[in-house]
Design goal:
single chain, mainly alpha, 7 helices, 0% strand
Amino acid sequence: MNIKYTSDPTAKALGDYHDASQTGVNWNGSMAGAVGADSWRKKQQDKSSSWSSSSNKTDSKVICTELRRQGLLDRDDYLRGARYVEAHLTDQHIRGYHAWGVPTVRLMRRSKRATTFWRALAKARADHLAYLDGDTFRRNRFGALLCAVGHPVCYVIGSLVGEQDWQSLYVSGSAINLGPEKRS
């Protein structure tokens, strides 16, 4: 893993769980029949589920989630972004983000150009967050500008709008069965 998890044990547990599910090895690296593995696994699952359900903020990264679904955003960057949202942004920021982010995802599902555009912005922001996390090689001033301007704008929009139905993007079949749509 490329992310430093020392400051966030729940994100580490989530990452370890994902890695283990890909390899078939328990989270602690032992084989499945190890003594105490089941109780240890249960404890880690409880930690992991409490992290993901503690707030809807980390579940509602709609543009990054769409890019991740399409295979265009690295898992480590996605998790780093989720941690950043959880630590630094309020529910008001998220409401404002959803006001324009939900329609943006719908556009991204129809347009290859829109997806390419938003991927470039998400990559710049991901590079900036990696820089803030200590990866000095990923410094991105455009990503810093996006955060410096975008976060306050989302906050203001969030004060003007109500809750957005971002979960409608993930209703069974809506993300997969898009019908015969032309991608420009």
